[in-house]
Amino acid sequence: MAEGVKGEGDVVSGGWGSLSGMAQVFARERPADALVTLQRQNKPRGYMCSSCAWGKPAHPHAFEFCENGAKATLWDLTRDRCTPEFFEAHTLAELRTWQDYDLEMVGRLTEPMRYDATLDTYVRCSWDDAFQGIAAELKAMDPDAAVFYASGKASLEASYLYALMARVYGNNHLPDSSNMCHETTSVGLKKVIGSPVGTCVLEDFAYCDAIFYFGQNPGTNSPRFLHPLQDAVKRGCKIITFNPVREAGLLHFINPQNPLQMLTRTPTELSHMYLQVRPGGDISAIMGLCKHIFARDAADRAQGGEGVLDRAFIAEHTDGLDAFRHAAEAASWDQIEDHSGLSRSDLEAAADVYCAANNVIGVYGMGLTQHVHGSQSIGMLVNLLLLRGNLGRKGAGISPVRGHSNVQGQRTVGISEKPELVPLGRLAEMFAFDPPREKGRTTIEVCEGVRDGAVRAFMSLGGNFVRAIPEREAMESAWRQLSLTVYVATKLNRSHLVHGRVSYLLPCLVRAEADIQRGVPQAVSMEDSFSHIHGSLGHAAPASPHLRSEPSIIAGIADATLPPHPKRPWLTWGADYTRVRTLIEETYPDMFRDYSARMFHKGGFYRGNPARERQWKTSSGKAEFTTPTVATALGIGRAPGRFHLITMRSNDQFNTTIYGFSDRLRGLEGSRAVLLMSPGDIDAQGLVAGETVSVVSDAGDGVAREVGGLTLTAFDLPQGCIGGYYPEMNALMPLWYHDEASKTPAAKGVPVRVRRDTATAVADLMSTSIA
Ligand SMILES: Nc1nc2c(c(=O)[nH]1)N[C@H]1C(S)=C(S)[C@@H](COP(=O)(O)OP(=O)(O)OC[C@H]3O[C@@H](n4cnc5c(=O)[nH]c(N)nc54)[C@H](O)[C@@H]3O)O[C@H]1N2
Ligand SMILES: Nc1nc2c(c(=O)[nH]1)N[C@H]1C(S)=C(S)[C@@H](COP(=O)(O)OP(=O)(O)OC[C@H]3O[C@@H](n4cnc5c(=O)[nH]c(N)nc54)[C@H](O)[C@@H]3O)O[C@H]1N2
Ligand SMILES: [Mo]
Prior knowledge:
771 residues, six-stranded mixed sheet, alpha/beta, Dimethylsulfoxide Reductase, domain 2, single chain, Rossmann fold, binds ligand MGD, Barwin-like endoglucanases, binds molybdenum atom
């Protein structure tokens, strides 16, 4: 690779760099008692990290947290405060010109606030005024016009109450961040194996012989995963990675908990093969793997062998093999190589590793889910695993790596726009009401509803919705037409400034803070990526005496809004979470048996998964081979001059929260206003690395979308693929460009063109034109 080209994967994940990343946030936030707090992170009777959803082991390390988990905690526990006096000094029109980074840097929100139109800012109000004000608007509204979004962090207890509140109010409009994330999994995986979540548990990584690893970046997004990956490699397990970007976290790792490795600076090499697949090329790449496996099987049988497929498993447990085999045999290697960008010989070598392994795990993240045909990519990965019975046994299975720390759990306890996934009959009995049966709105449908005027009220339990969704410019203007916006939040963000006519900003406790209700400390719980439920107990002093917990805020709103009923004592629930857990257990008795007693068990308790037991809750009652209808997951294919943009997370952000401007693991420092392109493409476009470029939409719908002021940076990427940061690039994503089955926005294959920036001023990426 030529000199000056970034992304060649020469940076090491973990190691001293990760400690210095933590130290920088520590020095800036100066949190009190941070070390005492961090020692309790992810430990039994401590609090569960609020960053990612990676599993929590039964036998934790002395420090069971990673660089980014520590950053998340330090960010929460900052000494800086966003007070009513701050808002007195700034109108929202002014704050809308600030960068997102600067908004969150103001610090923790301290008091409940109400929007005042005459002053154009938030002003202090009492909790009771807030609850009554929200109730007045909601009661005056058609219940179908209100939406209840959740961002994936709130506990199981808060989430259960939130979903119940929406349903008693009268709708199933309960989208959550999962709709932009792993909804492709919830829909795609459910269809083929009958389970909407992964089948693996953490221990499986101690027994697998190969990991086929697609589109997930553990170095940044789930760093504690690097430990089991390192252990696996040391045992001889082979990791085969498919990713357009050579992510340092999948290449070399120095374990910060291993003094010898730290001192000698000798990394473990993680990936056995690193295949830089084109964006959306996974369908063809896996087709190539399967084609070779079928060919090997046929050759072996022709010579009197048993073949390489697990025939007994296929006969007993699956449906649809023949159609899929015909498709694989018919697929041409030329086409496979063209769509995947990978060579036949590499794919055959990878398939040989698959065949040699007794136990294989398929891991994936946003690189598969955020595509127009993302659900078909997931179907292909399942096909690969089914060929050799790699589902529903120890050391094997499918492992989607979930995002927010309780995003999977929120779905488990009823935050879902899909009423068929919720035991409505039981809720009706338990709470004496008639639950709404109509389908609720997904994230995309919420955006359409706000745009078209059907949605009038938007409530948000955490998150930064307008920054996370596609089509930013149009959406922000539409949001300003709403009657009511309610934001339950910890820190100020862009969404709070894009408010409705009536708006409330309600500050809540973070997970590491002590939650005391009527004198009694309260624990909460969450579900990790492996369907294990963990209790969490905060100890740190709250950022302000006026903060309330999420369950008590929800209870306050519900109590003020909904007709009183003896079976729905909201305020009692909001003050005693054990009672809420009893309700959850009653609603889901199979999964939550002895809930309160078991939630502090080491390693959490497993709520079970039929697919892990080889019970397939699909329409055929079997695990299903699916034949893809397309050769690439891209919704709009390649064409001369067109690039496919992958929107990326830096190592210094948590979603829309930007901790800083260092993407250490990719060797990119100091700015997020960059556009990454391969040296060959830079030449072919007649551009020069270092110059300023604009990216414009090439979605063919006539809508002008543009992000400018980007420094063109040479980066090791496949031809035709460019990279830019989420959320800065979201203005380029059409609302209609989403996974066909689940409506997850296709943030990893956005069709665009690149041109030299003619404007002399560098565009301010993070503020928009609306005033
Ligand atoms: N520190 C930190 N931790 C986080 C988050 C964070 O922002 N910061 N976010 C949390 C959330 S909500 C989520 S959902 C997860 C997200 O975690 P990930 O699933 O890792 O998501 P991304 O970083 O968006 O992208 C994943 C990878 O997909 C690759 N990729 C892009 N397109 C393709 C493709 O077509 N095929 C293949 N095979 N690969 C592709 C990218 O290069 C990237 O390495 O992390 C969670 N954890
Ligand atoms: N282009 C592009 N767009 C994407 C993605 C992508 O990869 N590319 N990824 C998508 C994905 S995977 C996701 S999950 C979404 C994320 O979308 P969201 O979940 O909506 O966004 P976050 O940035 O995680 O929300 C951050 C805000 O949450 C609030 N917050 C933090 N902690 C708490 C808490 O404990 N309680 C409460 N009430 N509030 C809290 C703070 O005010 C903070 O500003 O974005 C999606 N958008
Ligand atoms: Mo996510």
